[in-house]
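User: Show me a protein chain along with its predicted structure.
Assistant: Here is one chain, sequence first, then C-alpha cells.
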Amino acid sequence: MDVLIVGAGPTGLTLGIDLARRGVDALVVERAEALFPGSRGKGIQPRTQEVFDDLGVLEAIRAAGGPYPHRMIWKDGERIGEQPLFEPVEADEGAPYSEPLMVAQWRTQEILCARLMEWGGEVAFGHEVTGLEQDAKGVTVRFADGTTARAAYVVAADGGRSAVRRALGVGMAGETVDPAPFLVADVRVNGLDRDYWHVFPKDDGSTLALCPLAGTDAFQMQVRLAEGTEPDVSLNGIRALVAAYTHLAAEDVTELRWASDFRPRAALADRFRVGRVFLAGDAAHLHSPAGGQGLNTSVQDAYNLGWKLGAVLRAGAPDSVLDTYEEERRANAAAMLDLSTGVHRGEVRRGKATVQLGLGYRESSLSVEMRDNPSGVQTGDRAPDGTVDGIRLFDAFRGPHWTLLGAETSLPGVRALPAAPESYGPGVFLIRPDGYVGWAGESAEGLRGYLGRFVG
C-alpha cells in the first residue's frame, strides 16, 4: 500500500479523495464503527469551497447546507436585537465564493465519503491504531485487534488526541483560550423559529445559543458555562440548561442527537513530519471553534499534502518534496491559530480575515519568481478565478494536473491556456495542483527546470 490514512474525518477523507484521483493506493482507517455523528465543524469557508469544487463535491455540499443566519439576541424572554455574524465580503470574478456555508460536519463527511467510494477508495472502520514502527522503506502500523498494516507513508488525521502523534512522541504546545467550560450538542427544539441564530446571554458572561442547522430539522446548541460548572451532556442536563437560559421549557427539547463538552485550546504540534509519517488536521493543530477555522485549515492540510504524495509516489519526484508540507502548512496553521484565538476573544471580526482567500505560501521554497518587477498576483498566492478564451480558470484548474497560463507547453501533466487574466498582471504563471502560483516568469524560460523538481 502507498498511503495509510488514520482517521475518517474531513481531513482524512479529503486526502483519500485527492490520492485516489491520482492513482495512489491509499486506505483510510477509522477507530470508530461509523462516521462522526455530530455537527461540530459546520462552517465551510470560501477557500474550502474552492477545494471542494476541485474535488467534485461542491454542488452536493451546497445542496446539503445553506447560508448563516443573523444572530438574534434575547433578554428576559424578549428579542432585543439582531446582529449579522459576518462582515460582508464582496464576490468578484477572481473570488466567486465569498460567504461561508453552514453544513453539519456529519453531512460533510457523508458527502466526502461517498465521493471517495466513487473513486474506488475505502474506509475500514473499527481499526484502532495502537502503535507503529518505521524503517527506510515504509511504516508498519499496529491495531488493537492484533493485526498490522504496511504502507510507504502514513498520515495521522486522527484528531486532537492523536494516537499516531503520541506514538511518534511529538509534542503539542498550546494555551487555554478560555477558562470556562463549553458544551455543544445537536438537539430538536420546539418553540423557536429557524430564521435566526438565537443567543441567550447571562450577566455572568455565560451564554447559550441555538443555531438552526441548515439542511436539517435540528439546532446546534452551544453553551459557554460559568467557570467552575461541570458540564452535563445527558438529555436531562441539556434540558436543564435550555430551561435555565431561555424562555423555553425543558420539555421543548424533544431529542438529543449528539453532545460533547470541551475547553477551548490553541495548540500546535512541534513537527508535522517524522520520517514517513505526517500529521494533519487536529492531530497537528487545535483551534477554538470561533471563526470556523479548524475544519477548514485541516482540509487545506490534506489538499497541500495530497499532490505532493502523488508527485513522489507516481511521478518520480524526490522524497524531499514532502518536506515542504511542514514548511508550508505549519506556518499557516500557526497563523490560523492566532486568528481563531483573536475571534474567540473578540479581537478579530469574522469576515475578510476568516474566509481564508488571502492565505498563501509566498515564503515557501516552492514559490519561484523569475520576473524582475512582478505586479498583481505573486508566486505563492492563491490563483484567482477568471476567464481566458471563454474558459473559466477554475474549470481549467479542476483535476490533479498543473496549469500554465500565458504560454504553450508539451510538458506532461500540464494544461496550458494562452494567457492569464488581466487581474494577474503581466507574465507567465504556473499554477500548482492545489491552486497556488508556484512559478512565474517573463516567458516560459526556466519552466522546465522548475517542473523537473516534481517529475523524476
